[in-house]
Amino acid sequence: IMFVGTWLDQPSTSVNNALANSTLTIYITELYGRVNLGEGLLTTYGPEILSFLFISSPLLSRNARTELVRRFEALKKREVFPLLTEIQQSDRRALDEVIFDEIGLTQGEREAVYEAVVELVRARLEKAQSV
Asked: Are 121 and 30 in contact (CB under 8 A)?
């Protein structure tokens, strides 16, 4: 996933970048994105992004914001894998853990998010191959 834009809340840029790269945001992107360029490519533009359910960084605890930035700094130093491999990486899950803790997801709900992302991506790619 790649986003290009500018955060209106400049002091929260690092935290927002971490949030934007979470599996939860991938899930939301899969739900609201457009599949209209062939080969299963998913795109998002203003109208979709405006409907995203995005966590507001000021609502996170100070510790969570610090941890998100720290964990994202570590994560962005390595190669990004295809999504189905990426969401299995321990550093990816460590980033997600901060967000999941903040919003109070149980272990079962966390696994359901990962399963839903996998299912949505698979369905999108299978549909693209069938056309």
From this structure: yes
3-state secondary structure of 43: strand
Write down the pTM of the prediction.
0.83
Angstrom distances, CA of residue 82 to CA of 5, 30, 67, 88 = 23, 15, 25, 10
Q: Which residues pair with 34 in a beta bridge?
A: 43
E-strand ranges in the chain read none
CB atoms within 10 A of CB 4: 4
Could you give the CA distance from residue 107 to residue 21 in angstroms, rounded to a whole number? 20
Q: Over the stretch 77-131, which tens digit does the pLDDT of each residue have?
A: 999 999 889 999 999 999 999 999 999 999 999 999 999 999 988 888 887 777 6
Residue 37 DSSP symbol: S
Beta carbons within 8 Å of 26's beta carbon, 6+ residues apart: 1, 83, 87, 117
Alpha-carbon distance of 80 to 48, in angstroms, equals 24
Cα(66)–Cα(63) distance, integer angstroms: 5
Distance CA 54, CA 102 (A): 13
